[in-house]
Amino acid sequence: MNRQVALFGAGRIGRIHAANLAALPGVQLRYVCDPVADSAASLAQQVGAQAATLDQAFEDPAIDVVAIASPTDTHSDLIGRAAAARKHIFCEKPVDLSVPRAVACAESVKAAGIACMIGFQRRFDPTFSDAKQRLARGDIGEAEVLVITSRDPGAPPAQYLKGSGGIFRDMLIHDFDVFRWILGDEAAWLSATGSCLVDPAIAEVGDIDTAAVTLRTRGGRLCQINASRRAAYGYDQRFEVLGSRGLLACGNHRPTEVMQMDAQGVHHDKPEHFFLQRYREAYRLEVAHFFECLQSGAPFRTSIDDGVAAQKLADAATESWRCGQAVAL
Amino acid sequence: MNRQVALFGAGRIGRIHAANLAALPGVQLRYVCDPVADSAASLAQQVGAQAATLDQAFEDPAIDVVAIASPTDTHSDLIGRAAAARKHIFCEKPVDLSVPRAVACAESVKAAGIACMIGFQRRFDPTFSDAKQRLARGDIGEAEVLVITSRDPGAPPAQYLKGSGGIFRDMLIHDFDVFRWILGDEAAWLSATGSCLVDPAIAEVGDIDTAAVTLRTRGGRLCQINASRRAAYGYDQRFEVLGSRGLLACGNHRPTEVMQMDAQGVHHDKPEHFFLQRYREAYRLEVAHFFECLQSGAPFRTSIDDGVAAQKLADAATESWRCGQAVAL
Amino acid sequence: MNRQVALFGAGRIGRIHAANLAALPGVQLRYVCDPVADSAASLAQQVGAQAATLDQAFEDPAIDVVAIASPTDTHSDLIGRAAAARKHIFCEKPVDLSVPRAVACAESVKAAGIACMIGFQRRFDPTFSDAKQRLARGDIGEAEVLVITSRDPGAPPAQYLKGSGGIFRDMLIHDFDVFRWILGDEAAWLSATGSCLVDPAIAEVGDIDTAAVTLRTRGGRLCQINASRRAAYGYDQRFEVLGSRGLLACGNHRPTEVMQMDAQGVHHDKPEHFFLQRYREAYRLEVAHFFECLQSGAPFRTSIDDGVAAQKLADAATESWRCGQAVAL
Amino acid sequence: MNRQVALFGAGRIGRIHAANLAALPGVQLRYVCDPVADSAASLAQQVGAQAATLDQAFEDPAIDVVAIASPTDTHSDLIGRAAAARKHIFCEKPVDLSVPRAVACAESVKAAGIACMIGFQRRFDPTFSDAKQRLARGDIGEAEVLVITSRDPGAPPAQYLKGSGGIFRDMLIHDFDVFRWILGDEAAWLSATGSCLVDPAIAEVGDIDTAAVTLRTRGGRLCQINASRRAAYGYDQRFEVLGSRGLLACGNHRPTEVMQMDAQGVHHDKPEHFFLQRYREAYRLEVAHFFECLQSGAPFRTSIDDGVAAQKLADAATESWRCGQAVAL
Question: In this structure, what DSSP letter does residue A257 have?
């Protein structure tokens, strides 16, 4: 395998992908593109690539893969250009905040006959994917109820949230993907509610910081998601599946296995602080999976259709929350 | 203290209360009443009481407390008779399956000036009540989100469920009480859904066996309850409260602290099998609390008004489930 | 069954046994004897017995069981008198601090043909006895290595320790019994060492507060015991058995299953504070076992020979510690 | 930093170091040397180095570091040659099975003025080193008792063990190093025993497979080590330190955080299978530490003197086991 890659975006998530791409055998990270020239140059140097413009990347026939880690509002354009240039795509979630535009992206990708994977990294987390395997193997019988807990260590500034599409599109998008992946079924009914309990400035930009969603699938399975922008104890990423013959519970990961006992109690580490720590291995594995599938022709674990489907659920949740009523799907 | 007690009901829950009453200093269990004479006689003998009719119990002026552990459909009559006879009441949940009748009970009790406690034993579970104390002390700041998991080890026969009032009134009534107690706030909005996944015969009697409820309180706090009639691994009774400064999670209790490690994995005991085991200590403590309050005049932790309030939530959930829409309260 | 019992000793452990005896069906606690008349009287009243002198108890032909919970230095005399009076004996550990006197007790008991059980309550702890059952069932194959951790929450006054026979006879006696019971094998080699790290006053009375013992059995099995008079986090009572096919680990018990997560970490309860809490259930079960065996004729789980055998190991450990060398048995 | 490195040994541990060296910024792995030419060539190719003879490596003046991961009996010669060639040394444990030869190595290294670090990777395990930091910070007061559990998933062939120096030198050498590191004190008294319980062929080559060691330090601290060549549930690597104000317990690491509950019980993953998995991060961190210290001039966390000191304890334990008596140090 010899894959030449251009990476778009040299921010936080771009740097993670750059390091993982650089370490993959058979993959050469050639270009790093970012409107902030210094960021592109410094990241490129670290990983033995070169800074380039988007045009250079798209016009270089040696490049056969683009990795999109740029801001959300650039995704659909870049997917369109990559489809036109017939380059395979690894794209960070979401496809686009607008479902119609996301659907158009999916269509252009299919028309171009290129491969496109969406970076729902949670499906590659060792704990989550082990649970999925057990479920698929029937270890707990048929899945019946899924409970997802999804909490960030702290809320971003309200100004950032203003352009995020709201909590359901920005944050729960991952949970909607987990719901579809774990239950292997599609939503038929959804009810969402929420409150602004963490930071009043979030209410001022029209968003909430604490949310609760319930979904019922076509097969009658139930899912409850509780999400918060703040967990004082760190990044809380868990889910539990009740099956007809048992339960699978995915716990948080922690930095060490030290237990301290003293006059105050018995103490363990807090969970890994945030997504960069918790999903470090998942980010590595998803990129490796992308190239394995490119090579073997096997389908991606997270296709662009999965990206569109999660987006639709985020839209439905937003609508349900706004009108205070359940939504049929 | 010298309290003379008549117990109504010699079934499963009646026998628990009998043993706890018999062991309480200052309390004398005098009568056991049950339409099945043999049950009454055999239980009475075990605890040093005598079998009696209801009339005997109500007419005996020495009796100042009645403990109602008879079938649900007898509760409101017995509460009425006790109020008329001016005897204090300890009554198993629920007050009555009909909210108007439950309200009438509450009124008659107040009019008679007698004390009446409803047996929501979970409020006396050592784990749950410790969490409540920490919350009240502010250990995790302000409560924001409550997630309740409530699963029975197995479903009762559909025939039993036919007269139960449905899963929300029969099973989630306890969870609605926990919701009110833990969040210390009243529901403003409720959405419920559910499925029949465990036993098709349950659908045939018009009920469901798997349910999901979301509540939002007046203060914007959120609560999600997931409940199932079946957990292959035993009685699953947990809740978690997210607060502004941390989390409190109440885990299951298990019979022993043995851990086995072998070629198959690392293994612990399943949770205590069912409510008789898990809440054994809670049943003991609630009855002790009842008499302490009688003596001191302090208010009960679970009043008849709490019983009525939980019943109203069960009604609202039933309605929400039936119409597929949220309900304002 | 109708057993009439006299209890000797109204101290801390005597009160526990009194409550458990009083609650046993078929058992009547008739007398409580204690040189401190007030203690005897107040305990007797609580449990519906009467205070009595030793002579009254021994001379009353209706009494067929004596329960010895008086100070250690009274045990051998009381066992002797009970044997002479042909009353069955439940005796707190140890039989006697002197092995020859303990042996003599065992002989007099056998000569008299009475039953005598020694109160090694740990064998009745639900966690420990479950581990023993699994071991006996072969769940982890053949036992090979036993590691015992045995720590008190705090050291008693050095003055008390002066008459205690030293840490090996006073504290590790229980661990020597666990060693024999769990491995089902006898010691062939023992090495003990220790230090005074907790309280210098303990060194001044010729004792140590921190000890480490290693035993090798006739069959080559190994056991390590680590013991301390002080654990800042409470009573630490654990053991682990490595077998040819796995491991069994017995953990501490804790008062509640509340987990708190906050900015400082993840916190659980400390272990139950001390033996009265941790072994509450064990004390109840051992007394019930005593009467069941009396009734059925089955052998006790902890015979007077077990008491003598543990005492011999305590002597050997004391000798090994003093001379700094291993001891063959 | 620009360090040119020659690696000796292309076996299991050599391959781990090669990958870690190749990924370190500022470090260039130039040569891989192994008597098995194919192994050297294939490993060299994987990491962008070249296969070379020892002579080539020692004679190349550009090489300033040698990493020794060859069989134990080559260590002292290679250390000698490196000292003569004035190249810094990273050497896998042990220095040498003979204490006098190990001492001679330490002297030649010091005489040559080169840096030499011994690969006791456990000191770099995130869990173990976090415990050490807490201890150093005084989080549990003064260390008093250390209990080490050290078990391999399965015994190697008895033929391999024949040349290993015996269980104390081959396996417990790591535990002796942990003992010195964690307690920060030197042994004054040691008693060892053991048995052959796993594989009779091990007894035939004069070794044991199950061992128990107790050490008392000059300061009176106690340490117990229990070790076995077989744990059916995987690699068991734990230790606990009791301090005057609490306990620190280092637990095993496990591949995922999935918990399964079913009719058989509650199940978690077994520990990481063996040292390559459990200490993967430790191997990475120790090599990074080596180069950081080279650069900064700070002392290594594990010096050649630590290697010699652990070897002396292994010798003492072997002697104690053989003679069945304690040894003063």
Answer: -
The pLDDT mean for chain D works out to: 97
**Number of structural domains, chain D?**
2
Same domain, B144 and B259: yes
Using an 8 Å CB-CB cutoff, list chain B residues near A221: 195, 197
Check whether residue B145 and residue B103 sit in a common domain. Answer: no
Q: What is the reported pLDDT for B1?
A: 76
Are residues C267 and A263, on separate chains, in Cβ contact within 8 Å? no
Q: Are D147 and D221 members of one domain? A: yes
Residues of B in contact with D254 (CB under 8 A): 266
The CA dihedral of B17, B22, B25, B28, to the nearest 10 degrees, is 100
B168 in a structural domain = yes
Alpha helices in D85-222 (DSSP H): 99-112, 126-137, 158-162, 167-170, 173-183, 200-204
Q: Could you read off the pLDDT of C301-319 as tens digits, one per residue?
A: 999 999 999 999 999 999 9
Of the three residues C114, C134, C165, the one that is the final residue of a domain is C114
Q: What is the CATH number of the domain that holds C253?
A: 3.30.360.10
Distances, alpha carbon D56 to alpha carbons D27, D30, D50, in Å: 19, 11, 11
Task: Please check whether residues D144 and D240 belong to one and the same domain.
Answer: yes
- Say if strands B222-228 and B143-151 run parallel, antiparallel, or are unpaired: parallel
Rounded to an integer, the average pLDDT of C201-229 is 98
Interface residue A224 vs chain B (CB under 8 A)? yes
Q: How confident is the model at residue D209, as a pLDDT?
A: 98
- Give the tens place of pLDDT for each residue, C232-243: 999 999 999 999
Q: Distance between CA D90 and CA D99 in Å, rounded?
A: 19
* ipTM of the complex, rounded to two decimals: 0.96
Q: Which of D91, D114, D137 is the last residue of a domain?
A: D114
3-state secondary structure chain C: CCEEEEEECCCHHHHHHHHHHHHCCCEEEEEEECCCHHHHHHHHHHCCCEECCHHHHHHCCCCCEEEECCCHHHHHHHHHHHHHCCCEEEEECCCCCCHHHHHHHHHHHHHHCCCEEEECHHHHCHHHHHHHHHHHCCCCCCEEEEEEEEECCCCCCHHHHHCCCCHHHHCCHHHHHHHHHHHCCCEEEEEEEEECCCCHHHHHCCCCCEEEEEEEECCCCEEEEEEECCCCCCCEEEEEEEECCEEEEECCCCCCCEEEEECCEEEECCCCCCHHHHCHHHHHHHHHHHHHHHHHCCCCCCEHHHHHHHHHHHHHHHHHHHHCCCEEC
**Is there a single domain that holds both residue D189 and residue D317?**
yes
- The partner residue sitting opposite A232, judged by closest CB among C231, C263, C267, is C263
Partner B contacted by A20 (CB < 8 A): no
The parent domain of residue A15 ranges over 3-114
Helices marked H in chain A — which ranges?
A: 12-22, 37-46, 54-59, 75-84, 99-112, 126-137, 158-162, 167-170, 173-183, 200-204, 275-278, 280-296, 304-323
For residue A180, CA distances in Å to A118, A136, A187, A226, A302 come to 14, 14, 8, 16, 11
- Are residue C91 and residue C143 in the same domain, yes or no? no
Could you tell me which residues are beta bridge partners of residue D244?
A: none
Question: For the sheet containing C50-51, what is the strand order?
Answer: C50-51, C27-33, C3-8, C65-68, C88-92, C116-119
C62 & C176 share domain: no
Domain membership of residue B87 (yes or no) is: yes
User: Which CATH number characterizes residue C66's domain?
Assistant: 3.40.50.720
- Residue B133 belongs to a domain: yes
Report the C-alpha gap between D145 and D248 in whole angstroms.
11
Confidence of residue D317 (pLDDT cuts 50, 70, 90): very high
Which residues of D fall within a CB distance of 8 Å from C145? Answer: 210, 212, 226, 228
Residue A100, both tokens: 């119609």
- For residues B139 and B89, state if they share a domain: no
